[in-house]
Amino acid sequence: MPTSLSWPSRFSFIRISNFMLFASLFSFLPFAELRSISQPRDWMGQPYTFYACFLLGMLFIGPFHAYLVDAFRRKQVYVCSFLSMLASMFCCVIFVDYAIPLMALAALCGLSFGLATMAGITLAIDVTPSTLRSTGNVRFAWSSLWGVVVGCGIGGLANFVSFIYFGKVGPLLVPAALTWIGIFFAAIIHVPFRAPLVTKVLSIDRFFLPRAWIPFVNILPIGFLVGIWAGDISWIIGLPIAILVGRSRFVREHPIRFAAIGLSLPAVVFLVGFALSFMGLDVRTFDPQEIASLYGYGSVRAWDWLSMRPASWNTIPVWAGIGLALPVFWLIFVKLSHHCQRGTANTTCLIAALIGVLAGMSMPRQFPEFRHYTRYVFDFLPAITAVVSLFALLFFLFVTYPYYKRYRVR
């Protein structure tokens, strides 16, 4: 295992920039809740519509990515798409009361984010020595996960404070600051010259790895769990513990035990909570506060955690389980890829995780203005998450891992 001293500084810079990319986006996404609060009966104003348009834009640009990074300078593609994402966020705030322009801007934001994400993975591969690229893919993926949870947790709370003092423009302050920090670290990276390849305009190269379609399906429910609890900052305790465990030799030698332990933790937590609810013990209190009507789910969950509410402490094992399972999947994707396909494998894994995360974040939130729509969803949310995590566990044990053992390359 390489030491930290053997990693080039350029790789560290692109990891920091990638972290800022994800943190800036996911600190802004709770903005989608504002329109759903102001117009609860308008289906075009609901978060799932915003997220669906965002996801369509992200998937649309994927087949063009290989052509763009060969036709233009890779760092320029990354920085320009980063800036385009920030510009689309700014326009979303301006057109928040207009459904169709807002949906178009959500698609543009997804397109910019998708291109920046894939270009960032390409840059990370280019600045990493070939002997470290498999491990580098996993380390780079961790920066994405940290960006999601930090953006939704701490970023959501910071945006709430800025919303109070600066009004509608407030939610842009944190994403804008993170964006410029990310661009700074990208700008100081020296990217070695690489002769352009003759690439078709449309290609799944560096976008989707067909050999990894089974792990792709398996990681969707795990991303769904991340999305449901994205605003809860109990990851401060659970996720670091999982990272420390994940660096052990046991993980590399016994991946199936490692992933099974991780995926079983969320199921156990939610099944126990759901059973106790029938006994009259509400272990997952989620009575909405006035803060919810002001800004976003991430602020509510961060506020709950800071108030030491039981619901937040119960999710610590969930974050630990997610942190235990994800490194195994990143290794599976990388080890299923052939030579020069590790970047494609990382992109495929990331796309699956993002689809799951956005689906989880699209779950209706319990705001007072449309509580009659969401009461039953929240009554059965522990059961839903238990079924999802059990499905992920069983699918891994009986489908994904046998497939990986048969078709692994590395």
Question: Which descriptors would you attach to this protein?
Answer:
410 residues, mainly alpha, Growth Hormone, Chain: A, 18 helices, 0% strand, disordered N terminus
Provide structural commentary.
- This protein is mostly helical and 410 residues long.
- It has one domain: MFS general substrate transporter like domains (Growth Hormone, Chain: A, Up-down Bundle).
- Helix content is 72%, strand content 0%.
- It has helices at 9-28, 32-38, 47-61, 65-71, 74-94, 99-126, 133-166, 173-187, 213-228, 235-246, 249-253, 255-278, 297-306, 310-314, 316-335, 342-361, 371-379, 381-407.
- Helix 9 runs parallel beside helix 16 (342-361).
- It is globular, with a radius of gyration of 20 Å.
Please give a quick description of this structure.
This protein is mainly α and 410 residues long. It has helices at 9-28, 32-38, 47-61, 65-71, 74-94, 99-126, 133-166, 173-187, 213-228, 235-246, 249-253, 255-278, 297-306, 310-314, 316-335, 342-361, 371-379, 381-407. It is 72% helix and 0% strand.
